[in-house]
Amino acid sequence: RRPAGRPEGVPAREIRSVGVAGAGLMAGQLALLLARSLRVPVTMRDLDDERARRGLAAVHDEVERQRARGRISDAGAARLRELVRVTTDVADLAGADLVVEAVFEELAVKQRVFAELEGVVGADTVLATNTSALSVSAMAAPLIHPERVVGLHFFNPVAQMPLVEVVRAAQTDDVAYSTAFAVAQACRKTAVAVADAPGFVVNRLLVRLLGEVLGALEDGTTVAEADRALVPMGLPMGPFQLLQLVGPAVAEHVLRTLRHDLGERYPDSPGLARVVREGRSFVTGAGRPTAASPVDPAIGE
Ligand code: 3HC
């Protein structure tokens, strides 16, 4: 089944209000981008007050950073703070025309979130998933209206990365698909139509790359040297910086999904599993990692 681009002559759904399921790292970045690009209220929803509070604080910090750098005016910053809200009550997403989910990367969790959303939103609200690798069709399957589900896969850091993978599930209708392209376009992203296949396009390559460099680490190369060796190959950042940015646990989830669906081409990475288990960090000094944890000397830094 070939993915086709935006269907011609099919108007996108008008979006006056957006919901974001989750208030974590990707969710907050998405909420801010959507509020800024679509200029509509965006409500993030997470499970408890603490996660909700932290999610909103991260958004406010970024708004303040942009204001302090003169990228947005005082009024613009105030407007963004007004537009992005947070809640723990899914019913607060009832009026959303579009909900983007960015919750834990597990099919059952995402299916539960969509089922819960379907209980409160309108029948034609578009439900988009930011999944890294899971099947969008499988995510949509248990719903009453699976035709409104579409994949809208943004990359981290969301504001900077120009690409969005748009995924048409087996059930996705033209309106939901067209809406996904329109949203990506409004966010000034390059929308690429990709098949609903494990890892879509980018992550198929990315986890192989990260798995291989972890192999080099196992063989004794240091994090800093591996990053230094590979950046001149044309990568925008060293692979270990990238692993830090993506999060080793997310990378492991992607790898596990690809291994499950595509088999031996995606072998287990003992290095990645160990990094996840031990909560190691790859801060090499260059660039800006997401977590400010110190380098573990055992990694060979
Ligand atoms: N988090 C958030 N923003 C960051 C960041 C980070 N870790 N690192 C840099 N930035 C921002 C900076 O704040 C700056 O924004 P500003 O202009 O508003 O201040 C902007 O990026 C440019 O920063 P710099 O000039 O310092 O740095 P670079 O020119 O080196 O660009 C980069 C930074 C855009 C992050 C670049 O290194 C890059 O493209 N790296 C590759 C990132 C990548 O491949 N991401 C995909 C990950 S895979 C994924 O998300 C899919 C998932 O499913 C696993």
UniProtKB/TrEMBL annotation:
Coiled coil: none
Domain 3-hydroxyacyl-CoA dehydrogenase NAD binding: 18-196
Segments traversing the membrane: none
Record domain 3-hydroxyacyl-CoA dehydrogenase C-terminal: where: 199-280
Family: In the central section; belongs to the 3-hydroxyacyl-CoA dehydrogenase family.
Name of the protein described by the UniProt record: enoyl-CoA hydratase
Organism: Georgenia ruanii
Coverage span on the entire protein: 342 to 642 of 730
